[in-house]
Amino acid sequence: MATQRILDYIADRRPQTPCLVIDLEAVRASFEALSSALPDSAVYYAVKANPDPAVLSLLASLGSSFDTASVAEIEMALAAGATPNRISFGNTIKKERDVARAYELGIRLFAVDCEDEAQKVARAAPGSAVFCRILTDGEGAEWPLSRKFGCVPAMASEVLARAASLGLEAAGVSFHVGSQQTDLGSWDRAIADAKGVFDRASALGLDLRLLNMGGGFPARYLMDVPSAQAYGEAISEALRRHFGNRVPETIVEPGRGMVGNAGAILAEVVLVSRKSPDDPFRWVYLDIGKFGGLAETMDEAIRYPISTVRDGDPCEPCILAGPTCDSADVLYEKQPYPLPLTLKTGDQVVIGGTGAYTTTYSAVAFNGFEPLRSHAI
Amino acid sequence: MATQRILDYIADRRPQTPCLVIDLEAVRASFEALSSALPDSAVYYAVKANPDPAVLSLLASLGSSFDTASVAEIEMALAAGATPNRISFGNTIKKERDVARAYELGIRLFAVDCEDEAQKVARAAPGSAVFCRILTDGEGAEWPLSRKFGCVPAMASEVLARAASLGLEAAGVSFHVGSQQTDLGSWDRAIADAKGVFDRASALGLDLRLLNMGGGFPARYLMDVPSAQAYGEAISEALRRHFGNRVPETIVEPGRGMVGNAGAILAEVVLVSRKSPDDPFRWVYLDIGKFGGLAETMDEAIRYPISTVRDGDPCEPCILAGPTCDSADVLYEKQPYPLPLTLKTGDQVVIGGTGAYTTTYSAVAFNGFEPLRSHAI
Questions:
Q1: What is the pLDDT of residue B260?
Q2: Residue A106: Cβ within 10 Å count
């Protein structure tokens, strides 16, 4: 749920709803937990999860590196105090002019997953290091990865060999086990696949040095998730199992796991109604919905913890929806959400675990509603 | 597809991609077609479909009224030259302070679908007119309506009677047959339901005067849709069938049907790749995706027509995706999209029928990508 600092801020400042409040002390604690759970890995914070300048500055000052998806994110990381050697351009889908701009800004580490992308990097960022992303199955992840990023492991060594022939440094391999991944075994399978690429690359005369293990570290929503420590141990064991005493340099890219639980959204109940006198379910409408920052409720994938001013009163499941005139702007309907029967128009609610993938998913002005405000405290 | 004026603009100006280009002459033609197909109905343009100031000003000058979803949209309609008596606050989910603000701005027509909402309007906009939205089944619509808006018809007369007892004018009934509705018969069923509410209201001593028939008028995407004239005839017949010679004042609220085909998005191919040497499908990545304005590809609901600089070359189905690091940012995968085999990185494509529900759905800065630019010509 929300941290005490967030609850105090809401009580004292009474900010206008809807808004996200981010607790920087909680971000610091996350960074420290992840760093100490994975002491041999460099932490590259996934900027896309929450690019709030205060979050980026804090993480830069703590020694974090940054995984970026665009030139704009590279510029934000630099503005926050990161040096270019601590920034990776991790999007496998880049315009060549954006690769060139990143190179001008000093970036020398790029993700690829096919020969064409390696050719772009070779032309626009000559001599840079590249890692090739491989496909994983993503089983056990709550926010499923599609096949959108990566190539099959058997193709990755060819892509890296081609990159080397174009004058790039064939640095290594990356994977992503799927966001909000709670199956610790999925890292073992992905690390085994990555080791296969290291071996095939070695047979092609390449000496890979880097394994980018991506993100997937979960936030705690309604259900408990394994601790950072448990992730660290599972990953360390898998690395030793597959790489023996030749474990490469490793990177992790937490986004949701870094900031998800550091934020909470304050929202207001706009209306409570029933569709007929004998409707078994109430409809509860909030002043935030799918287009205002809660895009990850798509297909009801992420189920946020919600606290209300009426907690303790008897609860019944309700259908929870956003404030726009879009019929798709419904948060939980297939699986109605239990909320107090006494909840009424004007009541405030706190939606926990919303520090990641909320502000930036927010629509620019859908139905005239302004984007989600954010307060870093 | 795109109009000739849009294609000429793209050829002459070569605007930076991605961007939406809106042809105001096509908007004018839509308004005229809808107005002449429904000569006895007032046209309330659904601002949420595309609130570009140039579109609003044009429609205001042509005599259109406006259906709005928020105070911001009311202000935009007023700024475009609409008088308050030509603006309806059509969202059934309103904060009371927003109702009050609308009332201050001169708005006197509000949507409700339950007693609580009627009470808000009675307190914050005393004496105003309200219409009660009823649920329809939405069958035949490509963008399905949920049960989010409206109450069952049997409840609507009670809500209107309550509104009257609170000093409001119980003006009438509204429905929405579902966006992109291609089944002309759905208006008949909804009008029959509305007539039932008129009758029950009459038995309660209320003399309803207004029937708001909402939107649902389609844009032409890949498949042909009935003409505005066919919609007009079906609706006029249904009105006569159910209301006889006592047809009430009617309103329609076209959004998609007004501007959908007046706009086209210019985009660029960022990458074409395969996931393995024997992958049967190419992946084609554009510089616009689900979070940059093409939100309506959610569940592959809306299938846009796409033209490329290689049209005429042999085609094969491909998986089409956006440029962000989000694995959900895939446009067409369940049903791959046929595109020329010769299509390559850097090629431009034109995505037709994108005048509605694109710019405002665009995320504010997801992955650092800026919101969709719009050029009204």
A1: 96
A2: 12
* CB distance A223 to A180 below 8 Å: no
Encode pLDDT of A81-136 as tens digits.
999 999 999 999 999 999 999 999 999 999 999 999 999 999 999 999 999 999 98
Q: Give the model's confidence band at B366: pLDDT under 50 very low, under 70 low, under 90 confident, else very high.
A: confident
Q: Which of residues 195-234 of A touch B (CB under 8 A)?
A: none
* Cβ A265 vs Cβ A293: under 8 Å: yes
Confidence of residue B64 (pLDDT cuts 50, 70, 90): very high
User: What is the pTM assigned to this prediction?
Assistant: 0.94
Please check whether residues B205 and B339 belong to one and the same domain.
no
Is residue B324 one of the residues assigned to a domain? yes
**If DSSP codes are grouped into helix, strand and coil, which group holds residue B251?**
strand
Looking at chain B, which residue has its C-alpha nearest residue A290? B361
Nearest to A74 by CA among A47, A45, A110: A47
Residue A198 within any structural domain of the chain? yes
pLDDT at position A145: 58
Q: Domain boundary at B254, B273, B288, which?
A: B254
Q: What is the mean predicted confidence (pLDDT) over B165-184?
A: 92
Structure confidence at residue A220 (pLDDT): 86
CA-closest candidate to residue B74, choices B92, B97, B51: B51
Q: Are residues A307 and A368 in the same domain?
A: yes
Calculate the CA A201 to chain-centre distance: 30
| Parallel/antiparallel/unpaired status of strands A373-376 and A348-352 | unpaired
CB contact under 8 A, B361 and A359: no
**What confidence score (pLDDT) does residue B88 get?**
98
User: Is A363 among the domain residues?
Assistant: yes
pLDDT at res. B145: 58
**Domain housing A144:** 90-254
Helix (H, G, I), strand (E, B) or coil at A38: coil
Here the CATH number for the domain that contains residue B197 is 3.20.20.10
**Residue A111 and residue A197 in one domain:** yes
Confirm or reject contact between A298 and chain B (CB < 8 A).
yes
* DSSP per residue, A254-268: -SHHHHGGGEEEEEE
Asked if A126 and A266 sit in the same domain, the reply is no
Which candidate in B148, B152, B155, B319 is best for mutational testing of the A interface (most A CBs within 10 A)? Answer: B148
CA atoms within 13 A on the CB side of A143: 22
pLDDT tens, position by position, B196-255? 999 999 999 999 999 999 998 888 888 888 888 999 999 999 999 999 999 999 999 999
Other residues' Cβ atoms within 10 Å of the Cβ of residue B189:
16
The owner of tokens 């060819």 is: A158
Residues of chain A with pLDDT under 70: 138-146
CA pair distance B119, B99, nearest whole angstrom: 11
Domain for residue A9, yes or no?
no
Interface test with B, best of A327, A347, A359 (most B CBs within 10 A): A327
> CB–CB of A70 and B367 under 8 A?
yes
Percentages helix, strand, coil for chain A, rounded to the nearest 5? Answer: 35, 25, 40
Whether pLDDT at B348 is above 60: yes
- For residue B39 the two structure tokens come to 């000569």
Whether B155 and B249 share a structural domain: yes
Domain boundary among A254, A280, A299: A254
B141 has pLDDT over 70: no
Q: Hey, is the C-beta of B20 within 8 angstroms of any chain A C-beta?
A: no
Buried b (16+ CB within 10 A) or exposed e, A173-199: bbbbbbbbbbbbebbbbbbebbbbbbe
Give me the number of domains chain B comprises: 2
User: Quick one: B208 and B224 in the same domain?
Assistant: yes
**Length of chain A counted residue by residue:** 377
Q: Are residues A272 and A330 in the same domain?
A: yes
Does one domain contain both B268 and B223? Answer: no
The domain that contains B337 carries what CATH number? 2.40.37.10
